[in-house]
């Protein structure tokens, strides 16, 4: 073997020190490629091979642009109870609590900011409001918290990274726990019977309209653990009275931009997040238990480590530039494919919701089609129609099992369609 004379230092296997090149011209990706090319030579000098360290280990050049954080959900659940986490092959295996993503360790600083090392984003600890959507944008531009002038209203993907599925939603505030880390972030329930009105603006507008042709903005409710589209103006005001909601500001690198590669084998890699997705669902709606089992048993592209995505993983592929009413497609970008524009997909995440006797009975799903509800339309009429009440890209909580026909007029004040049988899109890969 020829000596490695072109190296500045001897290629010794026990030498773990490397001199950093201080030149700003050498970007991290360039260094990564140089090291990737050098690796086989160093391994050969040490008597090793790439197989010895695992050929599946990604090189730094293949590292994702951003990371999907975990949901923080703990424990495991059946259709109606908390259970010991099941073994492989047992019912309910493969749920969120068994396959946690990166745990967020928020760092609260004395300047009123909170940093998230998983996403690289920095947040304001304080909660501003109540503001119109336009006022929220202006407040972000004027904000100087922490001495920074680059604050913005977060996108819906950025805002959803803060949701914490250790929370639960019960009939009263005293019985509930917010879906956000209240030891780090300021939070307060609303007053009165609608204590759960803790909706936060995002900067993401719905490309279609909801309700009675209302201009709609997506937001996260950290009291009930959901994404919905909210009217920008108060319904019935004709655009004269803006809707007022709260807002938490963010700064830092862009988060959530997808970069898809069709692998040609029925899978798609998102080079943004590093996750690998089943390209197309099989068109078969399932209950939650069967959805978990389907992904666990899936053998696709020679791989057997597929899983039902948790809520944050599945949210990472929602395309908010698409909606059935506008693009005649699900809120999903090619090369990912949906069986129908009205597609709804299960996650592996249980939403602790409702009184104690039913609080484990729901799991999160995403409406890649219209988030439908039975509403009186036109307003004041005696006729209820099934319309888009919350927008494609909403995250809801649906019963894990049961008979959908028992809910002919939906559930809740907007008559939300009750979905029990949803499609499945599996995922694999580290994040």
Care to describe what's here?
- By secondary structure, this protein is an alpha+beta fold.
- It has helices at 28-45, 133-142, 156-160, 288-297, 311-315, 324-327; strands at residues 76-77, 82-83, 107-108, 113-115, 122-124, 128-131, 168-169, 199-210, 214-221, 226-231, 245-247, 250-251, 260-262, 267-270, 276-278, 344-353, 362-367, 372-376, 384-388, 394-399, 427-428.
- The strands form seven sheets. A four-stranded antiparallel β-sheet has the order 3-4-5-12, with no helix packed on it.
- The protein is globular and about 55 Å long.
Strand order of the largest sheet: 3-4-5-12
Average pLDDT: 87
Distance between the termini: 38 Å
Which structural class should the secondary elements be placed in?
A: alpha+beta
The low-pLDDT segments are: 1-61
* Fraction in helix: 10-25%
What fraction strand?
15-25%
Q: What letter string, H or E per element, gives the SSE order?
A: HEEEEEEHHEEEEEEEEEHHHEEEEEE
- For the report, how would you describe the main beta sheet? 4 strands, antiparallel
Q: Cα-atom Rg, whole angstroms?
A: 24 Å
Task: Note the topology.
Elements: H1 28-45, E1 76-77, E2 82-83, E3 107-108, E4 113-115, E5 122-124, E6 128-131, H2 133-142, H3 156-160, E7 168-169, E8 199-210, E9 214-221, E10 226-231, E11 245-247, E12 250-251, E13 260-262, E14 267-270, E15 276-278, H4 288-297, H5 311-315, H6 324-327, E16 344-353, E17 362-367, E18 372-376, E19 384-388, E20 394-399, E21 427-428
Parallel strand pairs: 7-16
Antiparallel strand pairs: 1-2, 3-4, 4-5, 5-12, 6-11, 8-9, 9-10, 13-14, 14-15, 15-21, 16-17, 17-20, 18-19
């Amino acid at each position: 073997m020829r000596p490695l004379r072109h190296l500045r230092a001897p290629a010794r296997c026990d030498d773990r020190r490397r001199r950093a090149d201080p030149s700003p011209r050498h970007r991290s990706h360039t260094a990564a490629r140089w090291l990737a090319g050098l690796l086989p030579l160093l391994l050969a000098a040490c008597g090793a091979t790439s197989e010895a360290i695992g050929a599946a280990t990604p090189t730094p050049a293949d590292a994702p642009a951003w990371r999907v954080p975990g949901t923080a959900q703990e424990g495991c659940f059946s259709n109606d109870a908390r259970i010991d986490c099941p073994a492989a092959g047992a019912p309910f295996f493969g749920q969120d609590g068994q396959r946690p993503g990166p745990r967020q360790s928020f760092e609260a600083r004395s300047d009123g900011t909170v940093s998230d090392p998983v996403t690289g984003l920095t947040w304001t600890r304080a909660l501003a409001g109540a503001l119109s959507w336009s006022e929220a944008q202006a407040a972000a531009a004027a904000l100087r918290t922490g001495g920074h002038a680059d604050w913005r209203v977060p996108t819906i993907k950025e805002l959803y990274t803060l949701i914490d599925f250790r929370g639960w939603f019960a009939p009263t505030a005293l019985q509930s726990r917010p879906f956000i880390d209240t030891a780090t972030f300021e939070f307060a329930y609303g007053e009165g019977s609608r204590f759960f009105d803790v909706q936060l603006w995002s900067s993401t507008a719905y490309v279609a309209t909801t309700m009675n042709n209302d201009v709609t903005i997506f937001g996260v409710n950290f009291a009930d653990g959901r994404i919905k589209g909210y009217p920008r103006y108060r319904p019935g005001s004709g655009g004269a009275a803006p809707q007022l909601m709260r807002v938490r500001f963010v700064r830092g690198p862009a988060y959530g931009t997808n970069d898809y590669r069709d692998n040609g084998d029925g899978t798609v890699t998102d080079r943004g997040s590093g996750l690998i997705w089943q390209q197309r669902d099989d068109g078969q709606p399932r209950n939650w238990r069967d959805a978990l089992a389907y992904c666990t048993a899936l053998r696709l592209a020679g791989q057997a480590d597929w899983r039902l995505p948790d809520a944050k993983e599945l949210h990472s592929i929602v395309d908010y530039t698409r909606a059935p009413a506008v693009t005649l497609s699900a809120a999903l970008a090619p090369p990912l494919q949906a069986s129908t524009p009205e597609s709804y997909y299960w996650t592996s995440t249980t939403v602790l919701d409702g009184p104690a006797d039913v609080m484990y009975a729901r799991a999160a799903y995403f409406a890649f089609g219209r988030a439908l509800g039975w509403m009186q339309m036109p307003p004041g009429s005696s006729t209820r129609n099934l319309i888009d009440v919350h927008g494609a890209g909403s995250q809801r909580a649906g019963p894990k099992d049961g008979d959908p026909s028992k809910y002919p007029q939906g559930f809740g004040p907007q008559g939300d369609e009750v979905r029990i049988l949803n499609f499945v899109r599996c995922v694999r890969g580290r994040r």
